[in-house]
Structures
1.
Amino acid sequence: MVTPNTELTYNTKIEGDIVVTRVDAVINWLRSNSVWPMPMGLACCAIELMASASSRFDIARFGSEVFRFSPRQADCMIVAGTVTYKMAPHVRRIYDQMAEPKWVIAMGACASSGGMYRSYATLQGVDKIIPVDVYISGCPPRPEALLDALIKLQDKVTRNGGTTKQLLSA
Amino acid sequence: MSATATAGPASESELLAVLQGAFPAVAVRPTGDHPAFKLPVAEVPAALKLLRSQSGFDFLTDITAVDWDVEASPRFSVVWHLYSTTRLGYVRIVADCLSDTEPTAPSVVALWAGANWHERETFDLMGIRFTDHPDLRRILMWDGYPFHPLRKDFPLAGIETPLPDLEVGEITGATVKPAPMMGGPFVASTGEMNLTEAEPRAKDESWHERSEKPATL
């Protein structure tokens, strides 16, 4: 049987001790521990991206196991692979469809700088069309590198100042 | 299978006899591997059909083209590779395009449906128009791209053009830019006995991300 709680005061014996913090810090902490990735798998880096979600590397340890293939439900676009000029506008449009706040990880040499594709068909770095928060070197990077980038991104999210202000003004 | 088909890949002389009966203009082409023949471009579909029915070449493996040089005439040749799944041999048919500026070749989609994408690719990258192709659109580059990148007069780095999506180009200010070539293209030095020296390396490192491409290049 459920008895309604009639107590109006804070009962430390049940609820534990009080932690005083700032709203900004709480929101940042919440955000940084559930970054839902939008996998923009364009080439072989996407294989390593998939591997980081597997049990051996387990991206769930960092709260990012919920890969969403809809930009509406994602926080962080992971551009994994070669961005061709033909694909570039679509990447930008998918990025535009993501809800704020949103972040971008450029995974691997191609997404960061065009990589070995110095050619007429390849965009020389995805930062030409969307703002990138973290770059990962490697061709392709190992899953550990992606996890490292994710931790870097979490740091960045946690250090974000004025979160509440941004939320209220949005 | 017709009487001309015997075990083993068809020889050059056998195929020449088959082709010469119907196409007197056929010529043997110097080759390093498979039998190769040169034909007037208009006769190619009929010749391929003959090879398919008479010599068992039932599989079209490839259609491509060669740009000999900007100044060369004939400038473009189209190349067809056929394979026989019964006699396990290839044959190569080459035809020069009549025009050096608006090269065309007849489509063989009616013979092999698989020719469709081969011809679209050859059109996209080499600019060969295949007459009677059911759907001759670009296949790799985007619709509206103004160049044919595998032609000799097209630089590997590319030519500045707007992005395929003008709206995104406007938002981002990005355009299709010549790729910085420092670090590429990687070209091997052929004939070099020292393998370290023969390793593919960049020949022109004069322009890169921080130093724009000279206008004269």
2.
Amino acid sequence: MRAIGCITILALAGLVLPGGARAEDQRGIIMANTCHSCHGTDGRSVGAMPSIAGKSSDYIVETLRKFRDGKKPSTVMARIAKGFSDDEIVALAKHFAQQ
Amino acid sequence: MTKMKRRTFTHLAASAAGLSVLGFPMLARAKGANVVVIGGGFGGATAAKYLKRFDPSINVTMVEPAKSFVTCPFSNTVIGGLNPIGRITHGYDGLRKRGIKVVHDKAAAVNAAGRKVRLAGGATLSYDRLIVSPGIDFRWGAINGADASIAGVMPHAWQAGPQTVLLRRQLEAMPDGGVFVISPPVNPFRCPPGPGERISLVANYFKRSKPKSKIIVLDPKKKFSKQGLFKEGWAKLYGGMIDYRNLDNDGQVVRVDAGAMTLETNFGDMVKGDVVNFVPGQRAGKIAQSSGLADKTGWCPVDQLTFASRLLPNVHVIGDAAIAAPMPKSGFAASTQAKVCAAAVTALLSGRAVSKPKFVNTCYSLIAQDYGISVAMVYDFADGKIIKVKGSGGLSPSGASDAFHGQEADFARGWYDSITADIFG
């Protein structure tokens, strides 16, 4: 009985909303989901915007900070990056690095 | 499963749900809950897809009368002759493959107390939570002579599909030297930069095919979205083709005569067009009106954290129909709200805390095929409301280079392809 119980609980846990364990992780996912509209589902773009899935976390953090601070030219990304704090940029970068 | 195992499973599943309330949210799931989504557009289809992504155990049923969806975004490229209607038409097979039940019927009534939706075809769907994304309805009759019957003569083309095709055919049939009259709606309405883009892409078509033609705009407002950028583009590309008259310049239409193809303005000017695109004022879609989700403004008040209706329990409203200001009524906003709402519904069904949302809206508009502009904003949630993040967002710069506008046009198409794949793929 105990063994079956453990397996069932693990199975239940395994299918949970990724990051659903903690509210701040879920906020990271919600933040990242809004990026899909231009950069594709999970950061895999099907159009002119660059894919961001699987890019290194450092690269994403550096690029978003440069956009935000006006050190890298962009059309719209400077306007968007200005809406995110350092911590939020790190959370987004970690999320897309794992896709 | 054996009898014993099934009993064990049920017992443990129940314990898991109980544990979650006591502080073990890892185990929280909305096992077997039923969510019905009304509407298969940018809001509804996204909500259905992301509910399944967040929690595959939720039974998701989406109710949408149309077998395929024609998007309002990019419909101006069809009206301007840059794309065929097939380019902006999307089927629902992608959603079906994800295990979403797509029912092609019309929602006729919501029974919030009984948690049931009655369909026009007679069937009844039960739900634990309902997400309503009905888009817009028109305020026919608000202006003298403007009842629903005029749409066959003066297409609004503000719900994409047959109306889009009708307006395109009328423009194709119009002789060179003809007059196109467009009357944008009063605020608030779907897609604030839509009229500016439509004027631009009709001008673009005339410049290519009917260069002696004119465009008269009768706008009942003082100003419109991205006005400076549109006017800059019009001056650069379309010379004197566009005669824009705002509220201060007798732009308000007070009477419509579809038989005479004439719009009468506040000061009695009779403006006749060969093609007339009259876009009426708007309100939340019909089911929102008949089910009591809309208030006296005609739109649906919601808790901006979860998009739960303030008027009916266990019902959420997203997209154009919802009062989500300061977010605009855009396809992007509807889709990103749908993800936030889907996450909230998943959390509520499994007893987890709802996370504060943070989201983006970007609206691209084309002034020509290779000339794009944009407006963007980042939104956060504070003091019970959606707020704009200070210092973020804003318009494309004025006086930008052709290369800049060319890149924004490429990104407009990139946005369209990514968001439609994200929703329907």
